[in-house]
Amino acid sequence: MDTLELLREFIKRRVTNPPEEVNPESRLEDIGVDSLTLLDLMFDMEDKFGVRMPDDLPRPETVAELIEIFEKLKPASND
Q: Per-residue pLDDT tens for 26-37?
C-alpha cells in the first residue's frame, strides 16, 4: 500500500465526514484534517514506518506535502 492509500484509509477512519475523493492536491483543512487529527496521523505514521517525526517540521497544507514528508522519512523498501 502506498503512502496516498495509507492516508486515504486514515482519513476514512478519523475524519467525521470524509470526502469521497482524496487527491494529492486536496487541502488538509478542506478534507477535515484539523491540527489534532494531523497529530494523530503523524503518530500513526511514526508507528507504521518506525520513524520519528522531527519537532520542527513545517505544517503541511496539502495531502501532497504530507506525502512528501512521509516519503522522506520512511525507510527504503527491501523489494
A: 999 999 999 999
- What's the count of helices (H) and strands (E) in the chain, helices before strands? 3, 0
Q: Any idea how long the chain is?
A: 79
Which CATH number covers residue 52? Answer: 1.10.1200.10
- For residue 63, the surrounding DSSP H or E stretch is helix 63-73
Residue-level pLDDT at 79 = 47
Position 78 in a domain = no
**Phi and psi for 57 in degrees, rounded to 5?**
-65, 140
> Is this structure's pTM higher than 0.90?
no
